[in-house]
Design goal:
The protein is an alpha+beta fold. The chain has one domain: Beta Barrel (Lipocalin). The protein has 2 helices and 9 strands, in the order αββββββαβββ. Keywords: Signal.
Length: 152
């Protein structure tokens, strides 16, 4: 699988790998967001299991679609020739239809993702195992934020 596919999967978030004739898809679940080095990254109880991303790796442009606890998210990535760093090309967050339903830890997690996943943000990926991904945002920064995902 292309490194861009793994990077895209790590961005935004459930379950199985499926192969299509023209594209390959993987679904992942966000298990931790380390936005700041001195803060714990585990998702709050009301957000756990609600942040997922499905990656579609096509020959043209890797795309992702998923959910935060409060909204849908979609986007595309661009990849450097060296396949070491990818940049978020576009990101769109769907409207939160009922603000009263997205409160507490769920809203906090949504806000973290909305702040971290911005067009132009560089990302790098580490794969500790076949079932885990670590996406590092702004990898050249000191103590860069990261998002940890697990294949469902």
């Amino acid at each position: 699988m292309k490194r861009s596919a793994l990077l895209a999967a790590a961005l935004c978030f459930p379950a199985a790998v499926t192969a299509c004739s023209s594209a390959q898809q993987e679904t992942w679940q966000v298990v931790a967001i380390y936005a700041e080095p001195d803060l714990p990254g585990n998702l709050p109880a009301d957000a756990a299991g609600t942040v997922n991303v499905r990656l579609t790796d096509t020959k043209d442009t890797p795309t992702f679609a998923g959910t935060t606890p409060c909204a849908e998210v979609t986007g595309t990535l661009t990849q450097n020739d060296d396949e070491q760093v990818t940049a978020i090309d576009t990101v769109e967050f769907g409207a939160i239809t009922n603000d009263d339903s997205c409160i507490g830890g769920a809203r906090h997690t949504h806000n973290q993702l909305a702040e971290l996943l911005k067009p132009g943000t560089a990302i790098a990926m580490a794969k500790p195992s076949e079932e885990e991904l670590r996406v590092v945002l702004s990898p050249d920064a000191v103590n860069p934020p990261s998002i940890w995902l697990r294949r469902l």
